[in-house]
Amino acid sequence: MKPIKEILHPLVTFKFWKELVIMTLGMAVGAAAVYYFLLPSKLIIGTISGLSIVLAELFGGTVKVSVIVTVINAVLLLLAWILIGHEFGAKTVYTALILGPLLEFWEKVMPYQNLMEPGAVSVMNDLWFDLLCFVLLLSISQAILFRINASTGGLDILAKIVNKYLHFDIGTSVTIAGAVICCSAFAINPFRMVVIGLIGTWINGIVVDYFMDTLNMRKRVCIISKDHEAIREFITRELQRGCSLYHLEGGYTGEEKVEVVVLLTKHEYAALFSFMNEHKYEGFITASNVSEIYGNWNAHKVKKTA
After folding, report:
1. Residue whose C-alpha is closest to residue 220's, from 302, 285, 169
2. Residue 306's pLDDT is what?
3. CB–CB of 194/186 below 8 Å?
4. What pLDDT, on a 0 to 100 scale, did the predictor assign at position 305?
5. How far is Cα 182 from Cα 200, in angstroms, rounded to an integer?
6. Would you tell me how many other CB atoms lie within 10 Å of the CB of residue 199?
């Protein structure tokens, strides 16, 4: 059995507290999306929150949406723990269980009724605007949480399972899982409302993929230069990134050259160009965007030691 100190060590690291803050803020954004744009309009997007609204209506309003959300998420967490992994499961335990309380928080801080004009049916008083606002905020929340191997719970757990075992993009996985749940709205909503919900679910998947690609974007930089050794040293020592060296022969001149290939963040990419401009290093440079990386490239580097 592991000593208590070893078990509790992750709880006192900077990474743990940083991700805890990120998860809390991400879930606060997601809860605001549900409370201000989903509940008043009764739009049923393919989410567990949408399914909970259906169930609350079927129960005649005797059970609050926040309670149903918490119960469903608690059940789905078992799937996350078993099928996806302990880290994802543990993080999702936290995010899923605070969704209900965060809905209550927004209700106490600023009830959506206070934002609605007299006679309005929703905060924006237009189903399409409510749909777009909800999808935008929820997609931001999902992308932030997926990036740190967490989720908003509920539908995201199902989407992550589809993503892991069927190897679909996370946005496609969100759409597939959401479309199934969205059809449950036929129990309380007319056909037109269900179609709007399905469109919202589809848009949600597209926007999640867009934000995920944006957050994960890296630069694949290829540099052919006679100063390749100085460039390699800057990359490995200052930027603390690994790189690959390829020995080439110029097709036009027949000269032997060396190409440096490296994956960098946008900030590191700018730092590399500043370094080369400062020292007036010349070279042939190409750069392309990369949104997915597998292997030993780390998003978080260790701090340099003296």
Report:
1. 285
2. 41
3. yes
4. 45
5. 10
6. 15
| 3-state DSSP assignment of residue 103 | helix
**Which is it for the CA torsion 278, 280, 283, 285, positive or negative?**
positive
Q: Structural domains in the chain?
A: 4-215 (no CATH), 217-290 (3.30.70.120)
Sequence-distant (≥ 6) Cβ neighbours of residue 101 within 8 angstroms: 66
103-140 as b/e: b if 16+ CB within 10 A: bebbbeeeebeeebeeeeebbbeebeebbbbbbbbbbb
Q: To 10 degrees, the CA torsion angle through 104, 109, 112, 114? A: 150
Terminal C-alpha separation, the chain: 37
| Total count of residues recorded for the chain | 306
Q: Do residues 56 and 145 make contact, with C-beta atoms less than 8 angstroms apart?
A: no
Angle at 190 between CA 187 and CA 191, to 5 degrees: 100
DSSP state of 235: I
pTM higher than 0.70: no
Alpha-helix residue ranges (DSSP H) falling in the chain: 4-8, 14-33, 48-58, 65-79, 86-109, 127-147, 155-166, 170-182, 191-216, 228-233, 266-278
Q: Describe the strand order of the beta sheet including 284-290 as a list of residue ranges.
A: 244-249, 256-264, 218-224, 284-290
The CA distance from 38 to 71, in Å, is: 19
The CA–CA distances, whole Å, from 267 to 13, 38, 143 equal: 25, 37, 20
Question: CA–CA distance from 290 to each of 146, 168, 220, 245, 246 (Å)?
Answer: 17, 18, 7, 19, 20
Place of tokens 């899982």: 177
Burial (CB < 10 A; 0-12, 13-18, 19+), residue 224, is middle
Q: What is the pLDDT of residues 129-165, one digit of tens each?
A: 888 888 888 888 888 888 787 877 767 777 777 777 7
